[in-house]
Amino acid sequence: MSEGEVNRQRVNRLSEGEEKPTGIYNIQRKDKNVKTEIIYEDQELLVVRKPAGFAAQTKKVGEADVVSELKNYLKGSYLGIIHRLDQPVEGLLVFAKTKRAAASLSAQLSEGALQKKYYAVICGKPAAGQGELVDYLYKDLQKVPRAVVVEKEELSRFPGAKKAVLHYRLSEYASRQDLSLMEISIDTGRFHQIRAQMAHAGMALLGDSKYASEDVKDRARSLGIDHVALCACSLEFRHPVKKSDMHFEIRPQSKSFSCFASL
User: Fold this and answer.
1) Are strands 45-50 and 90-96 parallel, antiparallel or unpaired?
2) Where along the chain do its domains lie?
3) CATH superfamily of the domain spanning 119-223
4) Which residues make beta-bridge pairs with 189?
5) Torsions phi, psi of 5, nearest 5?
6) Which residues lie below 8 Å from residue 118, measured CB to CB, with a gap of 6+?
7) Phi (first) and psi of residue 122, to 5 degrees
8) Domain 8-114+234-257 carries which CATH code?
9) Going residue by residue through the chain (263 aa), what tens digit of pLDDT does each one get?
10) How far apart are alpha carbons 256 and 230 in whole angstroms?
11) Residue 243: how many CB atoms within 10 A of its CB?
């Protein structure tokens, strides 16, 4: 097997018309050179797990990413990219294997029918057990790309700023470590939305080297955390052909989440 090729033995293949139960899948890696984990496959789509620190799609020539590994696996067959995750983030992604699946899944994403939920870790305990964050985000590309929260009175100066809506809930508090596990969902899919909005609200994610304060960065270093504590843990959508509801969930594997009993 060449480097970057997905091991076919660990793929859940379905014959035409066969249904696979949804739920939590723990797939063992059989090739250490491959980082993408395929947790579901049928004739129309693939659902995969991207590990933290591995790019979904990189512009660097010769560097492996999720897309290149899947293209190697499919041996030149069609691969439709529906959505992405930031390189430091782990979690679930769905890809289309046919153009009709790509059209359906892309439409669901635009309409909000493709639902994603996230786990995140913050330092301390939030003042409110749950809440909604509504901000306007501007994508600053001058140096290192980052999302900037723009106050309403400044919107006229940033015509490219877009509304961002986020919902959070405290799932578990680890008192010994003084860390909180947060459940997050978003109504909009803005660049670095979760990381920027949570930091702006005083709840920066553990391990976030771009948006966290120096205190949070120091805490991450003391714990040996080198990736942002964010995982796309749940994915729901309608099957593009069968129209059945599909639901996938995973448990975070990153060290950041290891202190929480509920995981």
Assistant:
1) antiparallel
2) 8-114+234-257, 119-223
3) Pseudouridine synthase (3.30.2350.10)
4) none
5) -90, 135
6) 91, 183, 184, 185, 186, 194, 230, 231, 232, 233, 234
7) -125, 160
8) 3.30.70.580
9) 333 334 333 334 343 344 444 443 333 344 567 899 999 999 999 999 999 999 999 877 778 899 999 999 999 899 999 999 999 999 999 999 999 999 999 999 999 999 999 999 999 999 999 999 999 999 998 778 899 999 999 999 999 999 999 999 999 999 999 999 999 999 999 999 999 999 999 999 999 999 999 999 999 999 999 999 999 999 999 999 999 999 999 999 999 999 999 99
10) 9
11) 8
Q: How big is the chain, counted in residues?
A: 263
Cα–Cα distance measured from residue 52 to residue 226, given in angstroms and rounded to the nearest whole number:
10
Closest CA to 186 of 150, 121, 133, 257: 133
The rounded distance, in Å, linking the Cα atoms of 154 and 129 is 30
Q: Estimate to the nearest angstrom the gap between the alpha carbon of 186 and the chain centroid.
A: 12
| Range list of H helices, 206-250 | 214-223
> Three-class SS of residue 68?
helix
